[in-house]
Amino acid sequence: MNDNSENNSPLYPQETALDERDGRYLRKAIVWSHAARRRGNRPFGCVIVSAAGEVLSEAGNSNTETGDCTAHAEVNALRALAGRGLSREELASATLYASGEPCVMCAGAIFWSNIGRVVFGIDAERLRVFRGERQDQRDAELSCRDVFRASPHPIECIGPALIDEASAAHDGAWK
Questions:
Q1: Does 74 participate in catalysis according to the annotation?
Q2: How do beta strands 95-100 and 45-49 pair?
Q3: How far apart are CA 36 and CA 40, in angstroms?
Q4: CA distances for 133 relative to 68, 130, 137, angstroms
Q5: Fewer CB near the last or first residue (10 Å), C or N of the chain?
Q6: DSSP states of the chain as a string?
Q7: Which of 109, 102, 111, 78 minimizes the C-alpha distance to 158?
């Protein structure tokens, strides 16, 4: 999966180059994906960062540990923001970094939270290769960009990025 020729295939979205700040925080989300996998969960991680560069929240996927099918990394990180007293304007200027492209559920949660910017690692198309054809590993084949485009407020979406790094946690995790 880490073959660069595959990353440049017309079947997959092109990799997005990131600046130093986005690269740093996306790598932090990728670290969370490895931690989630080590704990027996699906390998996804998330970090939410304010416009000023303060890490507001970070989490890994925990649905195997908790038995909660909604305990995706993005939802866990958003839940951790609850009660922090952040305004909708502060959230609109925040960036959510996800090791993998947010699923439909997570994209909806991002919309409802008012997060204004998303940067993600491995895209859904490449993730589907890791997941295979097992019914219990399938996802709704709708891009987070489709959800974000339906939003009345702007949600900037950047990715896929750091594909090889974001893919590493998925090697052997889905079969």
A1: yes
A2: antiparallel
A3: 7
A4: 23, 9, 7
A5: C
A6: ---HHHHT-TTSPPPPP--HHHHHHHHHHHHHHHHHHHTTS-S-EEEEE-TTS-EEEEEE--HHHH--TT--HHHHHHHHHTTS---HHHHHT-EEEEEE---HHHHHHHHHHT--EEEEEE-HHHHHHHHTT-GGG------HHHHHHT-SS--EEE---SHHHHHHTTTTT--
A7: 102
Please tell me which residue in 74, 101, 141, 165 is annotated as part of the active site: 74
Asked if residues 31 and 22 have their Cβ atoms less than 8 Å apart, the reply is no
Q: How far apart are CA 43 and CA 167, in angstroms?
A: 9
Percent of the chain beyond pLDDT 90?
77
CA angle 110, 31, 154 (to 5 degrees): 20
What whole-number distance in Å separates Cα of residue 78 and Cα of residue 96? 9
What is the C-alpha R_g of the chain? 15
pTM: 0.90
pLDDT (tens digit per residue) in 141-160: 789 999 999 999 999 999 99
- The pair of structure tokens assigned to 107 is 């994209």
**HSE-up of 123 (CA within 13 Å, CB side)?**
20
Question: Exposed, middle or buried, 111 (CB in 10 Å: 0-12/13-18/19+)?
Answer: middle
